[in-house]
Amino acid sequence: MPSDTPETPSLRFAPASAPSVPLAFVAAESLEQWLATLPAAQSRFARAQGFTAGIGATVVFADDEGAMTGVAVGRGTAQARARGRFALAAARAALPAGVYHLDSDLAGSELEAEVLGWLFAGYRFDRYHANAAPKAALCAPEGVDAARIEAIVAGECLTRDLINTPANDMGPQELEEAAVHLANHFGASHLVVKGDDLLAQNFPMIHAVGRAAVPARAPRLIELNWGDTGPLLTLVGKGVCFDTGGLNIKPGASMGLMKKDMGGAATVLGLAQMIMALKMDIRLRVLIPAVENAIAGDAFRPGDILQSRKGLTVEVNNTDAEGRLVLADALALADAGESDLVVSFATLTGAARVAVGPDLAPFFASTSALVAPLMQAGETVADPLWNLPFWAPYETMIEPGIADLDNAPAGGMAGAITAALFLKRFVTDTPKYVHFDIYGWCPAAKPARPKGGVGQGARALLDALPELLAR
């Protein structure tokens, strides 16, 4: 359920007035200096426990009566910190139940990233199975905007919940319900066009991709609008709630994670929640083409040529490259709305995963001025990004000759770039366009990120928005 702050206690800071014990956050290179500041007995105890300040390492101090007087958590070496994120979060589950306050010289973005990670570590997806949350709580350190961090955590948890929910409970209808619930909570307006009305209102490719699904899972375009002042930001999220691959059916091993193919939609809804909860001075528009790429007698076929909202024709050379088709119609609508910035999020290509792996979110920007703010923001808020180019010499690869565009060029080279170039053909009147090709999934548990759905790029974009919208 969307809210201004997370309702789960493990996802919030403890009240500042709560009795708490100190939590020392110790870097490996500062271990000896820190040990020298302790009473001799505590220093000997820490050494005896083998505390080396590695990431996730903990040591608990107690008085003569056995009452806890403090804990220490390792930050690891500089090399270890460079190889990962959220060192503080790595220790949260191992700490005894209680309330802690941070005893550390961290400040600024480093401090904010660590306490953000601490809250992320309280996330559990327990809709179908009970998963105990950690009992250790943290007071918000001085200098940290606790309300902002809690709002960001709430948005991220919405994204995770939506991605983690299996397709039997997260089809186009349920995705619509989640979006409408979010809109109602924050006073946004909403509009949904579904089924054959998509054809009547000129969204032919969204209809074509989703028409094979059963009526209860009919294709639709979901739109939210919020805010009365400020620049107009339009977020477009791929909402393929399950992707069989269509008639170019995926093998079973590739189909197993396809509940996450609506990760782009989940990301923009989580980001929209952050923006609205923070009451940012912008006008926000969210567009989600929500479909199920199913197999039935009226499924679209390889070799079909589809009309698009933009007027461009598209030859379908692979029905498993459906995400760019539904995004194209939504982007054409976004492009006609005088947006100051259009941003799309999609779990779009395997090529992006081959290029940068699951941790990095590659993005494409229509102007070079958009790149530096996003890269800097990604580093600042520990939401890493990598810039890939809209490489114009590859435009010919998406021009089949029989139609204006090819949805799946042969050869397999530069797949992330050619997909991004395809999308860019539908954003011709908006100078500032950014596309994120995200994975939306953490394949193995890491600090602050359990295995499963995860947000990528949203926090970086949130941080960069003031500069992006000002340029």
Task: Provide structural commentary.
Its EC number is 3.4.11.23. One of its GO terms (cellular component) is cytoplasm. GO terms for molecular function: manganese ion binding; metalloaminopeptidase activity. Residues 318-325 form the Cytosol aminopeptidase domain. It is an enzyme of class 3 (hydrolase). The protein is an alpha/beta fold. It has two domains: 9-144, Leucine Aminopeptidase, subunit E, domain 1 (3-Layer(aba) Sandwich); 151-470, Zn peptidases (Aminopeptidase, 3-Layer(aba) Sandwich), CATH 3.40.630.10. The chain is 33% helix and 20% strand. It has helices at residues 31-37, 40-48, 78-82, 89-92, 108-120, 146-164, 172-186, 197-200, 204-210, 252-255, 263-277, 323-335, 350-356, 371-380, 415-424, 458-470; strands at residues 21-27, 58-62, 68-76, 98-103, 136-138, 189-194, 220-226, 232-237, 239-243, 283-293, 305-307, 313-315, 341-346, 361-365, 385-387, 405-406, 433-437, 441-442, 452-453. The strands form four sheets. Strands 6, 7, 8, 9, 10, 13, 14, 15 and 17 form a nine-stranded mixed sheet that branches. It has a five-stranded mixed sheet with strand order 2-3-1-4-5. The protein has a three-stranded mixed sheet with strand order 11-12-16. A hairpin with a 5-residue loop joins strand 2 and strand 3. Helix 6 (146-164) runs antiparallel to helix 11 and helix 7 packs parallel to helix 11 (263-277). The model is unreliable at 1-5 (pLDDT under 50).
